[in-house]
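Project standup — Tuesday

K.O.: blocked on the structure for the chain from last sprint. Re-posting the sequence here as requested.
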Amino acid sequence: MDNPNAIDFSTVLGSAVHDMKNSLCLLLQSIENLSQSVVAADKITNDHLASAHYEAARLNTGLVQLLSLYRAGLNNLPLNIDEHYLDEMVEELVSTNESYINHKNMILEVEQTADLVWYLDADLVGILLNDVLINAMRYSKKKILLSIYTEDEFLVFKVEDDGPGYPQSMLDTNNITMQNFDLSQGRTGLGLFFARLIADAHTNHDLAGSISLENGGALGGSIFILKLP
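H.V.: unblocked you, prediction finished:
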């Protein structure tokens, strides 16, 4: 007989993550407002605010991932597919990270095919790309390149940086799962597991989305590639 007083910890976790995510969104807004009121010449304060914004953004992304995985039950990620203009998605993505990029004197260059329109889940793809950009900002030295274009029957998002690149253990892994990564190394498996889940969920007839990792490219660092049919 089931205990009527038993606690469903999965439900508690889902509710707690949702509440924490809302609090972090308010914290991010407060940091942005504070950044606007600080004198530009106060470099030390601005650096601290930029770091706080970066870490809060990372936490928020992680919580969104956990909440989505909880709702999906790790098996079936619900999608909200609709027609979207890529210009608008990229503009929002750049705007979200503009504060940290400016504070760190980094360069985010965007190369995209004009007037691109695609059917996708803009919220989930936006979360995925934001997580990739956050990681690129953490490891790059100065420059990040975001490219958006079509190739064959796929929409391609490519994020390149001038950092040290992905470790060989990650490049050698074809099927990215949570178990493939050493969580002490900084680049944890959750983001990549979540990215693959989102990519795989985007299908069109017999085609499915994919992610891949490389090193080199135009900037000599890591390269993250997302393809959506």
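K.O.: great, moving the ticket to review. The helical segments are 9-37, 43-72, 86-103, 122-139, 168-171, 189-201. Residues 177-187 have pLDDT under 50 and may be disordered.
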